[in-house]
Amino acid sequence: MAQSLRGESGKSDYQRLRAYLVMQFFLKNADERHPVSMQDILLYLNEDCGISAERRAIYKDIEDINKILYMLDNAEDGCTIGEAEEALEEYPEEAFIISGGKNGKYHLTRRPNDLTVDDVRLLVECVYNARFITEKDAERLIPIVTGMVSQWDAADLEHDAFVVDRIKTNNKSVMGNIMAIDAAMKRGTVAEPHEPEKITFRYQKYSIEDVKKTVDRRKGERYIVSPYRLLISDGNYYLLGFDDKTKKMMTYRVDRMKDVRFTGEARDGEDEAKGIDLKNYTQRVFGMFGGKRVRLTLRFINPLLDTVIDRFGTKDVRYEKRDESHFTASPEVELSDQFFSWLCGFGNKVKIVGPEFVIEEFTAYLDKIRSMY
User: Fold this and answer.
1) pLDDT single digits (tens) 33-74
2) Cα–Cα distances in Å, from 61 out to 14, 55, 95, 296?
3) Which one of 35, 74, 321, 332 has the fewest beta carbons within 10 angstroms of its own beta carbon?
């Protein structure tokens, strides 16, 4: 049982909160699969909250709750309490809390803002799939998210989420990094002027000496970057920014950034940032880092069409039927070992058609691997 709200006098000091407590009881305990009786409500109020109430008072509370929830649900139309009352009299099926069947039990027909179990399941999966959220933060956030549905649905959702193992970051400062980057990118107002500025940070990588810890890249030299966009790809947060040292637009894993600081210097790279088509950029770069950009033609077997479109998209990519068993795709990619290794994953189901220098680089890549064995 929850801690009683009963006052020292033995009578509840919280009678005025009764309708609110009834609503919370429904949100947590009553859905179509698990209706509750009037006796369940009275027992909860008395034993858990120390509130003594009569049935007539609860009937009135349910009426008031339905009016308020209906009014809030139609707030964009300027719905008033009076209009909500009239609407529910004419269309009682629109009520959030109804009594169904001969047993007279009550349940929620839907939740405020029409939030469904599937909506909450999606939010739960987003938390667990986001690698930039630490395991500790995920464990803290999941009960908050599942608190939006009944305890029965919450138990199902948490069980579903825990059966899949997720690799989470160990960097506890990720959310602070995101807030700092966002603040650096913002343009101020007349009252609070601010121009987007450069940030500086230490960038981390894993070390074979101890794979549970990360060490500084560039031997501890601080990166200086003009931040432009925060991106999410494959469960990771990235910063797209103009690097002071390389004078190029680069991406950085936010969970590998440490000790983020403001520099007070106006950011550089405006022209480079404006020249980036973000959709094409993310399709080209993520999963295929580094290397020169080149348009090439690839031949795939037909069953791989969905996979190829998922990787390259359809904008600025030419797809053609080659024969009854094959198609060709002509994307622009960042030519690199990572890209070649991605091709290798398809074995003889893909072939580079051209240009010739790409074929030569790919065969040299394969020869280099073969020479190790």
Assistant:
1) 788 888 898 998 888 888 888 888 888 888 888 888 888 888
2) 14, 10, 13, 68
3) 321
